[in-house]
Specification:
By secondary structure, this protein is an alpha+beta fold. It has a single domain, classed as outer membrane lipoprotein receptor (LolB), chain A (Clam). It is built from five helices and twelve strands. A twelve-stranded mixed β-sheet has the order 7-8-9-10-11-1-2-3-4-5-6-12. The longest helix has 22 residues. The protein is globular.
């Protein structure tokens, strides 16, 4: 995987100590209607809030990377994030245990991230502002009008999203769970990041306000200050996933970032 495994679970968690400072950019204008029209080209299944399995398919673009597809499968028990294939490069979230597993086929390994509360305080005051603008010209998604949101921190536009308000709230709740688990690990490694590499947008998005943009509904198109963006190109709220998609490879070693930073007292857990 690219964004989910490569950046979210490795680069951010291991901190930005070996990276150059990130320049904060103002988020560009909302996407044209043509960018999100794909969802209206065929009749979409009606949103059934009681449905227990959902699949979301995205087109992802980020700097210096060819566009690719990303898939999120959500059930009552698990969340799987991958590059729209059934291989052994994926992220699995055990929702009951609040554990994220990042599975790497290249390294035959599984990075384990357990939920822990964010106990640190921001070194600078973070003042949030949200600009909401209904967009009557965009096509409706599942009979819901799109609303343009700009999420600002200390006056800087950190995230920009076209949101179908109230759409698939069970999916947004699951994604918010995933982001909150990561926030605890981000917070734990935050002090190892040099002060000159700390960015207010990154602090808000990844630690102190990880689910802010998910409060209003499912983002159909979203961009952040780094240039990363993704567009929802399809979804199915009556999806029936294969059970094996939620099974960890038993032959892969499991490890945590704590084990990388200090001698392990116990052998890594094996997948059951």
């Amino acid at each position: 995987m690219k964004k989910f495994i490569g950046l979210t679970l490795l680069a951010i968690l291991l901190s930005a100590c070996d990276q150059s400072p990130t320049e904060t950019k103002t988020v560009v204008a909302p996407p044209a209607a043509s960018e999100i029209a794909t969802l209206t080209e065929k009749e979409k299944p009606k949103n059934k809030q009681a449905s227990t399995s959902i699949v979301l398919l995205y087109k992802v673009e980020e700097p210096n990377v060819d566009p690719y597809e990303s898939r999120i499968i959500i059930t009552d028990k698990y969340i799987r994030l991958d590059d729209n294939d059934d291989g052994n490069d994926f992220v699995l979230v055990d929702r009951a245990k609040e554990i994220v597993y990042s599975v790497s086929d290249d390294n035959d390994s599984i990075l384990v991230v357990k939920h822990q509360p964010v106990t640190i305080k921001s070194p600078v005051e973070l003042t949030s502002d949200t600009v909401r603008t209904p967009d009557k010209n965009s096509p409706k998604i599942d009979d819901r009008e799109l609303v343009h949101y700009v999420f600002k921190v200390n006056g800087e536009a950190c995230q920009d999203a076209m949101i179908a308000e109230g759409l698939l709230t069970n999916a947004t709740a699951a994604i918010a769970e995933y982001r909150r688990i990561l926030a605890g690990q981000h917070a734990k490694t935050f002090n190892s990041t040099p002060a000159d590499l700390r960015n207010t947008c990154d602090m808000a998005l990844h630690i102190f306000q990880p689910d802010r943009y998910l409060q209003f509904g499912l983002p159909v198109h979203e961009r952040d200050h780094t240039g990363y963006q993704r567009s929802l190109i399809d979804f199915d709220d009556a999806y029936e996933p294969k059970p094996e998609l939620f099974v960890l490879p038993q032959e892969f070693d499991q490890f945590s970032l704590d084990e990388l930073q200090a001698p392990a007292e116990e052998a890594p857990l094996k997948a059951s």
